[in-house]
């Protein structure tokens, strides 16, 4: 029964006796593994002939001691399979381990979504033992979401499920995931672009309730997400004197600084009349935003199932309106990326087709004849 170490470079398991990453068959990256990066694993076969592996840590003495205990328990017939020893159900694991762990790592909407997804998982398999959830079980559930075309929802639930089981493996509650993860996610189309024309935008403003209208104006003129807008505080995030909105976005953690336009300034001054520094800018709840925005869309008659641009519309699409207005005004995609707080250009490539007119006008300069004297080419060059 050998001791193994895991190469920190290529993640390959090799004998603990070796100094470099190279197996007996010559495989491996060949790099030297320094003593301070050596992590030992015990490796053995259980009475059923299945291979088992357990991470011990940086101490070789502790790994040797653990392996000797395993050898003696096998020889004396008192070996206990760790899988059989673990009898916790999915619901128990969610309640006792995973959700408490999430509460230390997530907050706000992230934690709310974790709890929501864990609720679905517990309702589905709560009475099953943690190790008894199989690939067939997961595929059957996935097929149900495929029929209802709720691909986005399934992807979020499965990512929570996968994370929960990986957490169980890290804590050595399980040896490995009992189901396959490859190919379980649906391919999502995240590049939809919904935006409003000037007339549609005005109709939406007119249809908004008094408590919703300033928030809609702010969404179109800052490009911030709904959660970030509702968290804005006077004096801390919004400086009306210097006309700036500075915000560290919850989703990406990136900071953005946005100039307050005249239209936005008028809306903010109206809602901030009776507020003091530190107060929230917008006194409206998430549920009120959802209710009022749905009613405003219905009253303004913006949504048209026959027009791709507005065949469906959500509050988050106001963020796309902000980006589209900038692109159509000739602002470069890299600057739009910075205003939106994205870390890569991939997220703003969806707006590239909107810059067609700007690109056409720029390239039309190539056809413009130079002013002044026209230089004629030599006869030999013309030939």
Describe the structure.
- This protein is α+β, with helices and mostly antiparallel strands.
- The chain folds into three domains: 3-80, no CATH class; 90-170; 198-362, Intergrase catalytic core (hpI Integrase, Chain A).
- 45% of the residues lie in helices and 8% in strands.
- It contains 15 helices and seven strands.
- The chain has helices at 60-76, 82-85, 90-105, 108-125, 135-148, 151-170, 198-207, 213-222, 226-230, 262-271, 286-300, 317-328, 333-340, 356-363, 379-382, and strands at 3-6, 13-15, 40-45, 51-57, 238-239, 244-248, 255-259.
- The strands form two sheets. The chain has a four-stranded antiparallel sheet, with helices on one face.
- Strand 1 (3-6) and strand 2 form a beta hairpin.
SS-derived structural category? alpha+beta
How many distinct helices? 15
Overall shape: it is elongated
Q: How would you characterize the largest beta sheet?
A: 4 strands, antiparallel
CATH topology of the largest domain: hpI Integrase, Chain A
CATH class of the largest domain: Mainly Alpha
Helical residue percent band: 40-55%
State the separation between the terminal residues, measured CA to CA.
83 Å
Radius of gyration: 30 Å
- Biggest sheet: strand arrangement: 2-1-3-4
Strand content: 5-15%
Order of helices and strands: EEEEHHHHHHHHHEEEHHHHHH
The CATH architecture category of the largest domain equals: Orthogonal Bundle
Mean pLDDT: 83
Poorly predicted runs of 5 or more residues: none
Q: Give the domain tally.
A: 3
The strand count comes to 7
CATH superfamily of the largest domain: Intergrase catalytic core
């Amino acid at each position: 029964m050998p001791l193994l170490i895991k190469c920190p470079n290529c993640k390959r398991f090799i004998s603990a006796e070796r100094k470099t990453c190279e197996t007996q068959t010559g495989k491996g990256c060949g790099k030297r593994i320094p003593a301070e990066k050596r992590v030992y694993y015990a490796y053995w076969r259980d009475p059923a002939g299945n291979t088992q592996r357990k991470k011990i840590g940086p101490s070789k003495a502790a790994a040797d001691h653990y392996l000797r205990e395993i050898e003696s328990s096998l020889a004396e017939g008192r070996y206990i399979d760790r899988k059989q020893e673990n009898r916790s159900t999915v619901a128990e694991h969610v309640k006792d381990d995973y959700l408490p762990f999430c509460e230390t790592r997530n907050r706000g909407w992230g934690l709310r979504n974790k709890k929501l997804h864990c609720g679905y998982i517990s309702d589905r398999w709560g009475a099953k033992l943690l190790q008894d959830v199989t690939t067939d079980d997961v595929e059957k559930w996935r097929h149900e979401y495929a029929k209802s075309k709720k691909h986005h929802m399934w992807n979020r639930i499965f990512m929570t499920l996968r994370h929960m089981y990986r957490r169980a493996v890290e804590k050595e509650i399980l040896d490995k995931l009992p189901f396959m993860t490859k190919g379980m996610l649906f391919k999502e189309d995240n590049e939809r672009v919904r935006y409003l024309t000037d007339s549609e935008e005005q109709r939406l403003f007119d249809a908004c309730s008094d408590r919703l209208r300033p928030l809609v104006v702010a969404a179109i003129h800052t490009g911030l997400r709904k959660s970030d807008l509702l968290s804005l505080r006077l004096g801390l995030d919004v400086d009306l004197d210097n006309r700036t909105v500075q915000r560290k976005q919850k989703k990406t953690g990136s900071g953005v600084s946005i100039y307050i336009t005249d239209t936005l300034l008028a809306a903010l001054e109206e809602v901030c009349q009776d507020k003091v520094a530190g107060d929230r800018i917008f006194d409206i709840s998430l549920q009120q935003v959802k209710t009022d925005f749905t009613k405003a869309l219905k009253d303004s008659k913006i949504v048209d199932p026959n027009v791709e641009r507005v065949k469906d519309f959500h509050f988050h699409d106001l963020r796309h309106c902000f980006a589209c207005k900038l692109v159509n005004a000739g602002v470069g995609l890299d600057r739009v990326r910075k205003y939106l707080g994205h870390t890569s250009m991939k997220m703003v490539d969806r707006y590239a087709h909107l810059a067609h007119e700007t690109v056409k006008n720029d390239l039309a300069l190539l056809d413009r004849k130079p002013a002044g004297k026209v230089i004629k080419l030599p006869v030999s060059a013309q030939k």
